[in-house]
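Box 4.2: Ligand-aware structure prediction
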Amino acid sequence: MYSKIIGTGSYLPGKVLTNYDLEKIVDTSHDWIFTRSGIVERHIAAEGELASDLAEQASRRAIEAAGISVEDIDLVIVATTTPDQIFPSTACILQDKLGIKQGAAFDVQAVCSGFVYALNTADLFIRGGQARNALVVGTEVLSRLLNWEDRTTCVLFGDGAGAVVLQASETPGILSAKLHADGHHRGMLQATGHIGKGAVQGDPFIKMDGQAVFKFAVKVLSEVVEEVLAENQLQGSDIDWLVPHQANIRIMEATAKKLGLSMDNVVVTVAHHGNTSAASIPLALDTAVRDGRIRPGQHVLLEAVGGGFTWGAILLRW
Ligand code: ACO
């Protein structure tokens, strides 16, 4: 038994914040942001718009594209770093909003690698016979964790959601997946705030050592894509589409170069989405599926790295 993605969907909140808008908020410039990251604009959730709201819209589109109904879904996994509330999980809230009554629902927290972690988990549930139709979602309102006076972080992130329906299949589908983590590096990228005494204690905002993250990301992504290709006796040139986590165009270029892939084979949405953390891969995937770039039979490689540190890659035959 294998698993196969049979539908994708995504959703971006209505408000667009451009680099030129940011110039009015912090000491930055469009040129600095664009040259360093490839970002032009990002979407920002409205006040009161929650991770589960974005997830609901993306999920409805994925379920429609899959041609199934909510009664068929027997597993909901939500990857998010910005859950609606402490508990219950955003997956349970989403399950209720969609009217799903059966199966398991839980969140996965692996920051920007969250979608890769969640998809791998859903694949194992399906291959183990415990689920047939899994809804796997990445959703973030990361703007809530940004200090709008800190130009080193607030220019990089955005809000959004992406979803896929993963179904049991006699043919692959997901060919292999590799996940890694090394908590020793957790200080490079973190939001240390926590709840205590009825309020947020510590710093609720994202703090990042950008240069250290950059070097680490390039190194581990190169390693993990090689690992997943070697397991399938494939080479970079066999990949039709690389769909990377959309953190920074320069990190994506470095991974593509390592694989010997042209940027024409890389799905890039960072210019218009910014870094949407766990949502970035399913958002990019949905874009390339809907515009007809990703087609049946092609090899698609997903990769991500994020806080933790966590990283991973998944190879699929579409
Ligand atoms: N606008 C203008 N100037 C800025 C800004 C800004 N928004 N932010 C920092 N600067 C200044 C710095 O203060 C510094 O000034 P100084 O030389 O006077 O001290 C100068 O620009 C250079 O700063 P660096 O940090 O050296 O810039 P760098 O070229 O490394 O680019 C960046 C910074 C874009 C963060 C880069 O390191 C990067 O992309 N790192 C990866 C981070 C990332 O992708 N994080 C996403 C989360 S993790 C993930 O998803 C994988």
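In the box above, the bound molecule is acetyl coenzyme *A. The longest helix spans residues 210-231.
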